[in-house]
UniProtKB/TrEMBL annotation:
Residues 7-232 form the ABC transporter domain. PANTHER family: ABC TRANSPORTER ATP-BINDING PROTEIN. It is found in: Cell membrane. It comes from the Bacteria. Keywords: Antibiotic resistance, ATP-binding, Nucleotide-binding, Transport. It holds the Pfam family ABC_tran. Its main location: membrane. It is a peripheral membrane protein. It comes from Agrococcus versicolor. InterPro entries: AAA+_ATPase, ABC_transporter-like_ATP-bd, ABC_transporter-like_CS, ABC_transporter_ATP-binding, P-loop_NTPase. This is ABC transporter ATP-binding protein. The keyword Acetylation does not apply.
Length: 286
């Protein structure tokens, strides 16, 4: 195993009683990388992340995080992790600054609390009780709590759910600055644009297994990225995927004159992702 492999998961399985949540998941995250773990609700993303954080016990397989088995690792190991869970408990009655100060004191090389508050866009709210903040603001506090210890490895489980468009942009800026500092990140999100912008690599889990893996621009293979030509003909929308959209458009113009509602689009990561998940579902049903 390369020393720069901060997360190494091989053949991970997890059952809750009779229910198999993960069957055979292998993935890795190297130092400095951002990996996005994508998949439909219930695919096992949070289960995977919480096993890596040491919060859940696996049923089988090999797991190493920062070189240790999360089920046995201790306090020093945990100090290297930043954790933002998908759902957190009740909001604290402490203020934003109090809560972050208390947490920062537990880490050997914590960030400056006011800088963190500023980075998550809460500088006007540092003295407010967390419980009195809006849902999106409380989520920002949780992100702040995840990064205040200057973690080497940061886990973010749906960090931006409930964010408005501006808060999401601010969050992307924050993540880029963490990436520039060398932070290694494992992220889940339902926002495909977020994954496309932030991730170096993507792993799609579906039906308890890894359905696809690759970079945001290569995952799904070249066929998944064939341009789509759309036009309207005799009242109906038609579409065709083709290697040569120019040739198709020229042929349409020769045949129809100026075709109505003509457009040529490249599939987005969201289109590709949906193809992967649907193909996987069809395969599982067959
Ligand atoms: P995701 O984060 O991808 O939405 P989860 O990891 O939360 O998926 O859940 C994966 C599967 O495991 C789901 O079918 C879910 O219902 C089940 N599951 C998750 N946590 C528990 C639990 N504590 N007990 C029983 N089943 C669980
Ligand atoms: Mg989840």
């Amino acid at each position: 195993m390369a020393s720069s492999r901060l997360v190494d998961v091989q053949h991970l399985s997890k059952s809750y009683g009779d229910h198999v949540a993960l069957e055979d998941v292998s993935l890795h995250v190297d130092e400095g990388e951002t990996l996005a773990l994508l998949g439909p609700n219930g695919a096992g993303k949070s289960t995977t992340i919480e096993i890596l954080e040491g919060y859940r016990v696996r049923s089988g397989g090999h797991v190493r995080v920062l070189g240790e088995d999360p089920q046995r690792a201790g306090v020093a190991w945990r100090a290297g992790l930043g954790i933002v869970l998908q759902s957190s408990g009740e909001a604290s009655v402490a203020t934003v600054r109090e809560e972050l100060r208390a947490l920062a004191a537990l880490f050997p090389d914590a960030r400056e609390v006011d800088e963190v508050i500023d980075a998550v866009g809460l500088s006007g709210h540092a003295g407010r009780r967390i419980a009195s903040l809006s849902g999106g603001q409380q989520r920002r506090v949780e992100v702040a709590m995840g990064i205040v210890g200057r973690p080497r490895l940061l886990f973010l489980d749906e960090p931006t759910t409930g964010f408005d468009a501006e808060a999401r942009r601010d969050f992307w800026t924050l993540i880029r600055s963490l990436q520039d500092e060398g932070t290694t990140i494992l992220l889940t999100t339902h926002y495909l644009e977020e994954a496309a912008r932030l991730a170096d690599r993507i792993v799609v889990v579906a039906d308890r297994r890894v359905a696809a893996e690759g970079t945001p621009t290569s995952i799904g293979g070249p066929e998944a990225r064939l341009p789509i030509v759309r036009w309207r003909e005799a009242g109906a929308v038609r579409e065709e995927r083709t290697h040569a959209p120019g040739v198709l458009v020229a042929a349409l113009i020769a045949r129809l004159g100026e075709p109505e509602d003509l457009e040529v689009v490249r599939p987005s990561l969201e289109d590709v992702y949906l193809d992967i998940v649907r193909a996987d579902r069809a395969e599982a049903a067959a």
